[in-house]
Amino acid sequence: MSKLIAFAAIQGGYKVVSATEGLYRNALETYNADTKIGFPNTAYYLPVIYSLTGMKVETLEDLKKPLEFARGLLPPHVKGKHHLPFLGPLLDAGMASIFCYEIMEALRILKEPDFYMPTEDPDIEAGKIWVGPADDTILRKRGVEFVDGSAPGFAAIVGAAPTIEIAKDIVEDYQKRSLYIFCAAHHNGTTIVQQLLDAGVQIGWNTRIVPFGPDISSAVFALGFANRAAMAFGGVKPGDYKKILLYNKDRIFAFVNALGDVGTEWGVAAAGCVNWGFPTLADSDIPEILPTGICTYEHVVANVPHSEICQRSVEVRGLKTIVSNIDIPCAFGPAYEGERVRGADLYAQCGGGKTQCTELVKMAEMNEIEDGKVIVNGPDVGDLKKGDTFPLGIYIQVAGREMQTDFEPILERQCHHLINYIQGIMHIGQRDIAWVRISDAAIEKGFTLKDLGVVLHAKFHQDFGKILDKVQVTLFTKKEDVDKLTTRARAEYKTRDERVEKMTDEDVEIYYSCTLCQSFAPNHVCTVSPERTGLCGAYNWMDCKASYEINATGPNQPIEKGECLDPKLGQWKGVNDFVYKASRGAVTHYNFYSMVIDPMTTCGCCECIAAMLPSCNGVMTVNRDYAGDTPCGMKFTTLAGVMGGGASSPGFVGHSKFNITQAKFIKGDGGIARMVWMPKILKEEIKDRIVKIGEKMGIPNFYDMIADETVGITEEEILPFLQEKGHPALSMDPLIGG
Torsions phi, psi of 246, nearest 5? Predict the structure, then answer.
């Protein structure tokens, strides 16, 4: 390794630390030492510092300790007679700079609280293009995609490309590979974010192009995101720096692209990223670090042509990505799922209350359909003018020797994200309440309705090829045909729903495992039964059954439940045996229907977390979309941090939103009648199901008995409300020791 690299990086470290110390002195002259400081809506303080050292920075005075720690990390300057090795001192200098960049950003937020727009999407019209550090709600929502593999990793791009066209090409290549693109820093005053905006590209978390900030210090938000993922999903404890860094190297597939001249401040940041196992690839002529060691392969690679930088980056990081090449005129991939087709960009639309839009998948005999046939029955988009609406019926017939009617709704649900994967097309809803919006840009590229069928045919074969052999798609655009399909579809939906709702845990001998989250939470094992959906909300029993049929060696494995050891709490010998093996001995047993006694393990991916409220003799639950305080004294993100990572935590349990209104939800503890509090947003979302289950319990006003944050956020505040309403939990046996 070149002495020049070590010299530049260590010089950069001294420069960054000194600059941060100056900013800190100025802040102390301006603000009181006890002034609150930190990133918005996070339980992880300043996440890089907290995760690696355990230091909780809450006030301006608290910054002194990590700043001194950073100064102490700085190695001696490289002398003329100093010889190899240089990597250790270089890594220390890099880590010192990363700590200081995080402190710089905290001081910026203190001084300019409105500098960042801490939401998923920036407000371009208001000039607020930088979103800053992701809050914990965004972390958990987006982190799930890293867990399930739909986001294989992220590219951190600093600087700007030589031209707008090159910037657009690089970012779109990463989008096609389903990566997130974290953007920071500028090159001679130009940022890649501004280049993308000039090219008409939508930016924000929803399109996986995240504009963190305009300076190199803003790149620290990417590392903070990675470290919080280790704590939130992997259960790594704050301060365990070795596990944090190894977790990132082994499980977070990230790398840096440096576009533009790499000065000492960029160089020391690149050195800092090597600690994480994240390599840097540059388009300029900088000294390289090619030998392997910390990173999987090379550490720093220079002079990479722009046309090759995406492919070279994923190779150097050891990342495998799949690009779906489908014969349509628009780009295609998960990164486009979050695109919005706004009014000014809208060419035509169907559904959404303006017309009828219905989707139906039906099983067919092999000789009834022709594979790959796409029929557009009625006018196509070429027959429309800008601003038009039209009805649409999407009728998909599938045939296969392994196909079952139970798989129809699973295939049908794919329509939503697969259509959304088309660049310039927006899909909302499902079944008979779908809504499709087509952009001007898609029409300009030559999009037609037939392309919907081409996508559905190709992806059904790609994703479900084990269970189907033929796919034929018919697209109806005449009102009478759409109405006819809708009438038929509604009858099918009703039959399906009744079949699924009547299915109980006693009806089947086979449950299914889900170890999808083990990539992030190694000890977590979900067991999915008809009345206990996966805690992430993405998998029910039928989904897991189909998944096993498609991939017999995948994350969903059949479990013979075996002897029932406790029907009230929901415990089976076969499940215990499987969980013990799948958790590598970390978990010996758990109960399906209790949160008080040995509950199921929880991963940070869960949709909701339930917690006991002893003073109310009941339980509360909170969904990950709610960022406020709760009566148990902890926000969702704190709860997830305490019990995530695959732990069984008596008194708490992770679960899906749907599970709340399933018949066996915490049955062993008294069931849903124990539910005394949940956020208003969740309560309203599942209102119809709560009302229905309340009527079944003989408590028709049960929905109105459940408190939310408008009533109170402490047990003391909500107890009078529960007493006034006569909540059933108050007269039940004690939750503990009853």
Answer: -70, -40
Q: How far apart are CA 81 and CA 71, in angstroms?
A: 24
Is a pLDDT exceeding 80 seen at residue 494? yes
Task: Give the strand pairing for 254-259 and 209-213.
Answer: unpaired
* Alpha-helical regions (H) of 155-263: 164-176, 192-198, 220-232, 241-251
CB 481 within 8 A of CB 377: yes
Q: Which helix (H) or strand (E) holds 325?
A: none
CB neighbours of residue 473 within 10 Å: 25
Of the listed ranges 241-245, 285-289, 478-482, the one predicted with least confidence: 285-289
- Match domain 334-484 to its CATH number in 3.40.50.2000, 3.40.50.300, 3.40.50.150, 3.30.1650.10: 3.30.1650.10
Helix (H) or strand (E) holding 509: none
Average pLDDT over the chain, rounded to an integer:
92
What angle do the packed helices 64-73 and 3-30 form, to 10 degrees? 160
CATH number of 505-731: 3.40.1470.10
What local confidence, expressed as pLDDT, does residue 703 receive? 98
- As a whole number of angstroms, the distance between CA 558 and CA 512 comes to 5
Q: Would you state the pLDDT for residue 519?
A: 66
- Note the pTM of the prediction, 2 decimals: 0.79
3-class secondary structure per residue, 420-454: HCECCEEEECCCCCCEEEEEHHHHHHCCCCHHHHH
Domain borders along the chain are: 3-317, 334-484, 505-731
Amino acid at site 392: L
Residue 1's pLDDT band (cuts 50, 70, 90)? very low
How far apart are the C-alpha atoms of 655 and 161, rounded to whole Å?
45
Q: Distances in Å between the alpha carbon of 219 and those of 157, 255, 334, 403?
A: 8, 12, 24, 48
> CA–CA separation, 447 vs 36, rounded Å?
52
The answer, yes or no, to whether residue 6 has pLDDT greater than 80, is no
* Residue 158, H or E segment: strand 154-159
Residues 646-690 pLDDT 10s: 888 999 999 999 999 999 999 999 999 999 999 999 999 999 999
Q: Does domain 3-317 have CATH number 3.10.105.10?
A: no
